[in-house]
Amino acid sequence: MPTPIHKIAILGASGYTGAELVRLIATHPQLETTALTGERKAGQPMAQVFPFLRHLDLPDLCRIEEVDFSAIDLAFCALPHATSQAVIRELPHDLRIVDLSADFRLRDPAAYEKWYGKPHAAPELQEQAVYGLTEFYRDDIRTARLVAGTGCNAATGQYALNPLIAEGVIDLDRIILDLKCGVSGAGRSLKENLLHAEMSEGCNAYAAGGTHRHLGEFDQEFARLAGRPVQIQFTPHLVPMNRGILATAWLDGEAARLHAVLQDAYAREPFVSVLPFGTLPSTHDVRGSNYVHIGVVGDRVPGRALVVAVLDNLCKGSSGQAVQNANLMLGMDETTGLLGAPVFP
Amino acid sequence: MPTPIHKIAILGASGYTGAELVRLIATHPQLETTALTGERKAGQPMAQVFPFLRHLDLPDLCRIEEVDFSAIDLAFCALPHATSQAVIRELPHDLRIVDLSADFRLRDPAAYEKWYGKPHAAPELQEQAVYGLTEFYRDDIRTARLVAGTGCNAATGQYALNPLIAEGVIDLDRIILDLKCGVSGAGRSLKENLLHAEMSEGCNAYAAGGTHRHLGEFDQEFARLAGRPVQIQFTPHLVPMNRGILATAWLDGEAARLHAVLQDAYAREPFVSVLPFGTLPSTHDVRGSNYVHIGVVGDRVPGRALVVAVLDNLCKGSSGQAVQNANLMLGMDETTGLLGAPVFP
Amino acid sequence: MPTPIHKIAILGASGYTGAELVRLIATHPQLETTALTGERKAGQPMAQVFPFLRHLDLPDLCRIEEVDFSAIDLAFCALPHATSQAVIRELPHDLRIVDLSADFRLRDPAAYEKWYGKPHAAPELQEQAVYGLTEFYRDDIRTARLVAGTGCNAATGQYALNPLIAEGVIDLDRIILDLKCGVSGAGRSLKENLLHAEMSEGCNAYAAGGTHRHLGEFDQEFARLAGRPVQIQFTPHLVPMNRGILATAWLDGEAARLHAVLQDAYAREPFVSVLPFGTLPSTHDVRGSNYVHIGVVGDRVPGRALVVAVLDNLCKGSSGQAVQNANLMLGMDETTGLLGAPVFP
Amino acid sequence: MPTPIHKIAILGASGYTGAELVRLIATHPQLETTALTGERKAGQPMAQVFPFLRHLDLPDLCRIEEVDFSAIDLAFCALPHATSQAVIRELPHDLRIVDLSADFRLRDPAAYEKWYGKPHAAPELQEQAVYGLTEFYRDDIRTARLVAGTGCNAATGQYALNPLIAEGVIDLDRIILDLKCGVSGAGRSLKENLLHAEMSEGCNAYAAGGTHRHLGEFDQEFARLAGRPVQIQFTPHLVPMNRGILATAWLDGEAARLHAVLQDAYAREPFVSVLPFGTLPSTHDVRGSNYVHIGVVGDRVPGRALVVAVLDNLCKGSSGQAVQNANLMLGMDETTGLLGAPVFP
């Protein structure tokens, strides 16, 4: 029996997460890039927008309305926030979709409005959407029509914390998440502080003190696991590296216990490694891959611990996660096409 | 009356802090580099060891025993830890010394032994040494013979925390210091993880959970300010930038109050700026300079706040601080030669 | 007699060269920043546009028409190309001006039109302007009213080549200039390829094969020195470093002879160092400074040689050069305020 | 018929090229890493030496004498230069070997001695070895027992020049190769200038003027193609990027003709792309991949042209090339396992 090939559309292929999807699909044995859209760059070959993809035989960028969705098995939607919900509500209602924007991450319309500043345009879809953190929503994702890719910071923090919150081994009112984030997380946006001349050779905090929108995801998911509201403290920092997020979680809990809980939780996970107790991970070691490394160490202050998690924001934090979910939605092994080793150095 | 010129020796001039001292003294109107030592590179011109200094008319590197200390007004000692104490005890007892190593930072011999793993070789000097955080020891430094330069991480953390601890406006049992550190802090040491190929484009924690030696300084100084033991939590992270430390302090306290206390404390300090409330600093903005920027922001969790401080580890965190202290010891204005603006971009 | 202080206006202070001027003037003993203009950011304090300058007591940005030029001794004009000529023709005709744009570098209106694509708006001023490569136009600059700062690439190439062309020791029809350029040379322009994510960790040629506008300057200056047209080959490459240009000149000539000619030419120059024969320079060693380092090495092919020159594009290649010229125009020693050592590492 | 799996040993697996081999083999459908050696790190798990490989099930590092070569189908030898020849002469004489060192690149013992400073220890093997630039030695490689991987600089230059020399469309006495090289090319060697603090944010030439050992390869291969000695000029420059080489070839020839020749030569090559005339490549676009991009542009000086070639030094310039050759030697399609897309950004 020949291996079935699934036809894929990528909506919003001119940004980094769109390009990363193309990269991953290029060596995926069962996915085929059939349509690529980009409104402002419609008509251009991908090799012009992203010369690193020039060796691939890809369709030119087109407008969304030019795509024949009847020939598409699954669409990745890598459009900007807010645009995504407007587009998706107009797509065929039986089309499988993995959305990489923030639009369907929050199930509660009120929470959406709180964090994103306006009412949701497709609340009926919001309800249906499954949150895309594969390791924690695997069964729902398998049968979902619409999966909402997580925020990359939100993913990193949840890998560090979800099992600990679920098991009740940390003080829920004392969770601090200090993130160090690579610059590609800001996307291809033209801002002065993202220029090489201003970004390289320095770092700074941003969205500090609890204003970052990924907090909406943390609040939703942690409350669900804890059965009560959990309000963590979370501030990200911009670091001069292109890919990678390092989450340092400062916790009240017994380090050895935390380590045991994490090891148990991830023991059979193909992409999540818990390092030996006392060993801490580096973003260098997951660059370009779908892997997550997690380390635990005790603090000198008794009863306090650090958990550090790293992943590649564009891959496991976004497009790799999206492919992992698509694999499940299309009935494949979830690791298909995602076992590429990190690129080091 | 002609401006007096003070003759300076730099012991250990072949490392980064030694070279930074030469750089600062090059445009200092009242200091003159008279002797430079470097045991392994004795006999070499500085322009060979550090070509960026080739425009200067400098003495060749020599051995310490070749220096005529009777012609020296003040010696900077930029030798490795442990070497420093052995060398300094043999220097003339009336020679003014600013030591940049860790050897005289801890006043208590037991604390020294705890953090550095062996007994101190010159405990009598340890007692006399004045801790070199200028803004907090100014009067003692003015009359000191031996000043102990602080750790660069220790300096950054103290600028963020000292006034808050002194004023009692934060919970002393809930102080978390998450540092992001530039690689020059590791010195010119040849280690695989410091190679460009392994360091660039990623970050990682090190000396995690309360094992970093600069904790000895925090413990000493915070206890003194608080009048009781204070055990903070402190973990540094290595970030791919050459110069700069960013300290994120996660605190229990009222942000506005913290901001007011810091503003008061530093209102007349020439090198320390407290940014407007809610604005956070970037290491980019102090690179190559003796300035410190501090920002305060409230967290969404009531009663919690973040204080972020940045400085250049080689300058304000080490060699710039050393010159500032030397200025005081030699009767000059403490800002002399140190007002150079940061280098951006 | 008190040292006279000269009042300075910087037109176009919100770009990198404007900020670099402010940085240099901050420690200049005889210049005082009196007015700063920035059309789009008028009304903003400099500390908001460039937080690294926040320790300075600076005037807010204003519009050009708000400046009282009768109180100004010299204006630096760091405006965009083409804007500069329109602005300068309206300024008081006795105001000393150092222009950092490309507008007055080419004396011949036809050459200007060829390289910049439209007729010059102030050809009468074009004629008066003195080309600002200090070491070669020193006497003219001293008495000039309008000095045209050179292109940063053009400066680097000329330091390597001018004496060799003047002395006739290289084949004028075989001059290849392969440049490696730091990204700040592109200014604060918002382009995708200048984003950290796209620029770091790679390099590429641009304006290849003889299309870069700085060729207009090379053609003008080399023809003048040689007494005949000289058409060099010149292609720059963008390298992931913020500051610095390295020019590799591939030449037909006897290396030892070339070295001797360069040594002679620069023997008394305060800012230009010719390294020992066979030693090549690094941009690391001039970063943040007004120094130029030049090295010469013979090729294994007899009669061929390499000359490599490095400088900091924002300082010696632009704003440092501008201050050096202003020093001369205002009757000061040309090194005043420019002797700061490079920043390494 | 099941796909045959070939068992692979990697000798010298603790360096960058060794690790890159493991990375590539990890997703290669027909190669299996069976033995890994590393003398100084024998006994250690690979996950300790290279944490980025921790998700793989790999043998621990061992000493060469512990490997059972009778169970090995092909050995990659990633040992240091000189060590390699001593080791390979003792290996079973029927074992297929791809050597990544410089030891078997030069066929002529005299040339070897000239460039490497001592007589070859295994001249009889030197003669048998096939030069590993796949596109030009494909048939020989298919049946070779010992293939000598090329220098990474040598590979880049040859992709730009080989067809042009073979077709006689450029002046053979006027070939200049100005290379921009990523730092991983220097390997994991602990040198001050390779530290992040000294390497980042600057660039410099090295092995200038015709002293780099890869010239031995250029001389050998170009003479063979031209039927006469060809002595190019070649100087590499170190650029702050981890992976990537950009070769700028300055040539006497008609650009359009050169472009046509290159297009013809590489028309059916799976890994070599010739860009449209006038478009130049970037190392960013081949990072982490086995692809080569080549661009051609005319110079303003008639009859002169630039050819620019880029590749990833660790992959196509070394370990990817080695796998490509191994594929041929073991009877597989040469692209097997090598079609991974570059990693951007």
General description of the model:
The structure is a homotetramer. Chain A is of the alpha/beta class and about 350 residues long. The first copy, chain A, has 2 domains: about 5-150 and about 315-330, NAD(P)-binding Rossmann-like Domain (Rossmann fold, 3-Layer(aba) Sandwich), CATH 3.40.50.720; about 155-310, Dihydrodipicolinate Reductase, domain 2 (2-Layer Sandwich), CATH 3.30.360. Chain A has 11 helices and 14 strands. The first copy, chain A, has helices at about 15-25, 45-50, 85-90, 110-115, 125-130, 135-145, 150-165, 195-200, 215-225, 255-265, 315-330; strands at about 5-10, 30-35, 60, 75, 95-100, 130, 145-150, 175-180, 205, 235-240, 245-250, 270-275, 290-300, 305-310. In chain A, the strands form 2 sheets. In chain A, strands 3-2-1-4-5-7-6 form a 7-stranded parallel beta sheet. In chain A, helix 6 (about 135-145) links the parallel strand 6 and strand 7. The longest helix of chain A is centred in the middle third of the chain and has 16 residues, at about 150-165. The radius of gyration of chain A is 20 Å and the shape is globular. The first copy, chain A, starts with 5 loop residues before the first strand and ends in a 16-residue tail after the last helix. The model of chain A has no long low-confidence stretch (mean pLDDT about 95). At the A-B interface, strand 8, strand 9, strand 10, strand 11 and strand 14 of A face strand 8, strand 9, strand 10, strand 11 and strand 14 of B.
